[in-house]
Write a structure and sequence with these properties.
Protein name: Transposase
Strand content: 35-45%
Helix content: 10-25%
Distance between the termini: 22 Å
Number of strands: 7
InterPro entries: Transpos_ISL3
Order of helices and strands: EEEEEEEHH
Structural class: alpha+beta
Organism: Streptomyces aureus
Shape: elongated
């Protein structure tokens, strides 16, 4: 995650909100062909639920780039950059947040753990 800059961390009674963005000078691999690209098309913010910090859910507001693939033979024209260990295509939870949810559901944890899981999903 060396290409992520944390801009701010806001802690409230309800949630820990982390605002971050990816660095613009680091190339990203096309999700279609793997070609590295620095040709930025635009940016958008992904809202990711992560594992709780104490009893507070964690929300990561991550600004990522949409880039243009520079390989003319690739069927993708644009793609969204992914951050290894933090983002997964089409997911709204970090891998750690997703793993927490699977553990809670698979191990039949008490109602308190299920409440946490549902709060993570509604961020």
């Amino acid at each position: 995650m060396a290409n992520v800059l944390v801009v701010a961390v806001d802690v409230s009674d309800a949630v820990v909100a982390v605002r971050a963005r990816t660095r613009r000078d680091v190339p990203a691999a096309c999700t279609g062909c793997g070609t590295l690209s620095e040709w930025s098309h635009s940016r958008y913010v992904r809202h990711l639920a992560d594992a709780a910090l104490g009893d507070r859910p964690v929300r990561i507001d991550l600004s990522v780039r949409r880039l243009c693939c520079e390989n003319a033979a690739c069927p993708k024209i644009t793609f969204a950059e992914q951050v290894s260990g933090l983002t997964v295509r089409y997911q709204r939870r970090t891998p750690r947040g997703e793993a927490l949810g699977r553990r809670v559901v698979n191990q039949d944890q008490p109602v308190r753990s299920l409440e946490l899981w549902f709060r993570l999903g509604k961020l």
